[in-house]
Amino acid sequence: MNKIALLAIALSLLSGASFATESAPLTGGPAKHTTETISTSAVTIIAANGARKFLQIQNVGAANKLACTLDGTTPVVNGNGVQLGIGGAALYDVYVPTGAVKCIGSAAGTVLTVTYQ
Questions:
Q1: Which candidate among 2, 11, 22, 111 keeps its CA 20 to 30 Å from the CA of 83?
Q2: How many domains does the structure of the chain reveal?
Q3: Within 13 Å of residue 65, how many CA atoms lie on the same side as its CB?
């Protein structure tokens, strides 16, 4: 960081100015949650929504990998889409994909939770 930027930050801190470090709070209603148990066939978890403001996908299962696409195309484990291992999560709160979310598990009994608004 250059000296001018450091000086500007120091002066703003001394003057009591604050900087936003978190994303804007959700507005427009409560978040929705869905928990699904899926297998090795891709399924649509949530439909496309051009007004979506928040999306989080989490692999809450104990044993299987998960793949999800965010544009309605068919996901492939170890192929295309967001790849989530056990306990893995993907959070979208700034650039939020608005396409249909489709997911597939590496085996039957893959459990995922999706939170969205």
A1: 22
A2: 1
A3: 12
From CA 66, how far away is CA 57, in angstroms rounded? Answer: 10
Question: Which residue range is the domain that position 74 belongs to?
Answer: 23-116
Read off the CATH number of the domain in which 28 is found: 2.60.120.770
Q: Is residue 44 part of a domain?
A: yes
Residue 91 inside a domain? The answer is yes
Q: Is the Cα dihedral 77, 78, 80, 83 positive or negative?
A: positive
Question: Cβ(88)–Cβ(68) under 8 Å?
Answer: no
Measured in degrees and rounded to the nearest 5, phi and psi for residue 92 equal -125, 110
- pLDDT at residue 77, as a whole number: 94
For 58-75, how does the pLDDT look when each residue is reduced to its tens digit (9 = 90+)? 999 999 999 999 999 999
Whether 16 shows a pLDDT value over 70: the answer reads no
Distance CA 113, CA 45 (A): 9
In a domain, 110, yes or no: yes
